[in-house]
Amino acid sequence: MIKLEHVYKSFGKLEVLKDINLEVKQGEVVCVIGPSGSGKSTMLRCLNHLERITSGKVYIENEIADERLNDKDVLKISQEKVQQLCTELGMVFQRFNLFPHLTVLENVMIAPKIVRKQNQEEIKSIALDLLDMVGLADKKDEYPSRLSGGQQQRVAIARALAMRPKIMLFDEPTSALDPELVGEVLEVMKKLAHEGMTMIVVTHEMGFAKEVGTRVIFMDEGRIIEEGNPKDIFDNPKEDRTKSFLKKIL
């Protein structure tokens, strides 16, 4: 469903991604772990075109979404086509980024209303179902400022799902939360995984990666150092850098 081929990303002279090759198939839950500054979040941002790659290819749903060589476009892909492909991706950020002047229900409804031009009643019905799924149907008329961090992040997940994406990207979705609120967000993510949603999750929650991940990727200094099933990565890592990282955090 998603593929990165020989992807490089630089900010000026700073190389953030170095020859990233990754393929994610339908139904996989790929958990990306590694130290801060290893390029994990940048890789997600390159997938949904929040950042343009410097070199390489990005495929979404087997269609090329970005191809560049030395910061120059190789293929001329229309902005409309890119936007269409990127609507297949839902993204949840570290910060919730909810609109403070809109209610919870309005926050969930706004993207399909503006982007997909859906019927108001249809959007409302879908949004209410999603809020029920994340356990917040009773908060539909509240404003974000009256919610806890965990509740706001669950609203952000519902908002991303309202666009009916085929793939969900999570960029350290629990890192801004108090420890006692982490569990409620992870439970929603587990539910999505059990329902078959394809997911790429950048996370520091090793328990989640062990329990839910179908594959774990360890990144460091802009490279994929090691990947495999959770048991192999956590119980028997092959690379010294992976061993060193896990020894410090487990």
Task: Describe the protein.
- The mean pLDDT is 94.
- α3 runs parallel beside α5 (149-161), α4 (120-133) packs across α5 and α5 packs parallel to α6 (179-194).
- The strands form 2 sheets. The protein has a 6-stranded mixed beta sheet, with helices on both faces.
- The chain is α/β, with parallel strands linked by helices and 250 residues long.
- It is built from 9 helices and 11 strands.
- The chain starts with a strand and ends with a helix.
- It has a domain at 98-165.
Please sum up the structure shown.
With 250 residues, the chain is of the alpha/beta class. The chain has helices at residues 40-47, 79-86, 104-114, 120-133, 149-161, 179-194, 206-212, 230-235, 240-249, and strands at residues 2-11, 14-24, 29-33, 55-60, 63-69, 72-73, 89-92, 167-171, 198-202, 215-220, 223-228. The strands form two sheets. The chain has a six-stranded mixed β-sheet, with helices on both faces. It has a five-stranded antiparallel β-sheet with strand order 2-1-4-5-6.
